[in-house]
Structure formats: C-alpha cells, structure tokens
Amino acid sequence: MFGITFFKADPSTYVMLYKNGKLTKQGTGINFYYHDLGASLLAIPLNSQAIPFAFAMKSKDYQNLTVQGQVTYRIAHPMWPPRCSTSPSIKKANTCAMIPRKFKNAWCARFRY
Description:
The protein is 15% helix and 45% strand. The protein is an alpha+beta fold. Among the domains are: 4-45, no CATH class; 82-113, no CATH class. The strands form 3 sheets. It has a 3-stranded antiparallel sheet with strand order 3-2-5, with no helix packed on it. It has a two-stranded antiparallel ribbon with strand order 1-4. The protein is elongated, with a radius of gyration of 21 Å. Pfam families: Band_7. Residues 8-76 form the Band domain. This is NrtR-regulated hypothetical OrfX.
C-alpha cells in the first residue's frame, strides 16, 4: 500500500539498497521498510553456491564424449569488486590505479601487477 515495502534478508545474504542511484543501506541479514519508487535492491548470497555443468560432444572418431562437473564458489567480500580501467594508458602502465588503496597492496602482490 502506497509503495512502501518491507524487506527481510537471510542471515547469509548481503543486501544493498540504492535510492536514486545512491547507496543508502547495506549489511548482512538486515530488515527494513523502503519506498518502491526510485529504489533498487541488490542481494548477494554469502554462502557457497554450486553450479553444475555438462558438455556433450563428438570426438574425432565420432565417439560421444560427455564431461560433467560442478563449480562451487563463495563471495567473501561483497563490497570489494576490483575496478579495472579500460584506458589503454593504464593497461600499458600495468598498474592498479582503480583498486581501493587499502586493498591495493594485497591485490597487486597476489596477481603481480
């Protein structure tokens, strides 16, 4: 009624509420009321996610081959996406110019930038 909605997140979900393009609320497993107009919700699961896959193809000698597997991942830091620039000058310099300063040393050391 009147565009006001209640949102309740699981304890294993990180939620971000954007109003008119600005981040207003964020946190793990938070509950809040928000106005529908101009609001966007982003929910990131923090528990392990599993995605199965299967590939079927024919070999050179026309034998059927099937490969099945599962990819399991978990997002550890939902607020830390490394921001890489597409600028050719930054790529040529091979630097971590767009990564937040507090993560810069760890990111550059890990991936040898």
